[in-house]
């Protein structure tokens, strides 16, 4: 089955205009899937590690837009618009503790750059 033009164009753009700190490479066996790593921003609890992103993707947004949004959230978390209310509450009540937890989880779950 041929790839949709949109996937081809987005893949070409990702290769031609790489985003610093983000690696997105199409799978060799299925170009509809990408191997994605987002490096934690400097001076954030996530620095010095990279995050591998699952291959679920909705065509409602461009791949590049999604990756840039994730990278921005790693650099500037927003507890006022949370995905997990309990985590946002902890962040607001004890930001230093939340940052320490983020650093610990980064060491445990992220991969070295």
TrEMBL record:
Official protein name in the record: UBC core domain-containing protein
Cross-referenced SMART domains: UBCc
Source organism per UniProt: Chaetomium globosum (strain ATCC 6205 / CBS 148.51 / DSM 1962 / NBRC 6347 / NRRL 1970) (Soil fungus)
Keyword annotations: Ubl conjugation pathway
Keyword Cytoplasm: no
PROSITE patterns listed in its UniProt record: UBC_2
Annotated UBC core domain residues: 1-111
């Amino acid at each position: 089955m041929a790839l949709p033009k949109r996937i081809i164009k987005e893949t070409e753009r990702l290769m031609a205009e790489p985003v610093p700190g983000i690696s997105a490479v199409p799978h060799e066996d299925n170009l509809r899937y990408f191997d994605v790593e987002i490096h934690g921003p400097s001076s954030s609890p996530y620095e010095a590690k990279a995050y591998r992103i699952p291959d679920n993707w909705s065509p409602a947004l461009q791949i590049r837009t999604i990756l840039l949004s994730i990278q921005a959230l790693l650099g500037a978390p927003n507890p006022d618009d949370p995905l997990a209310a309990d985590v946002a509450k902890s962040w607001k009540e004890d930001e230093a503790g939340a940052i320490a937890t983020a650093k610990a989880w980064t060491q445990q779950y992220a991969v070295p750059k």
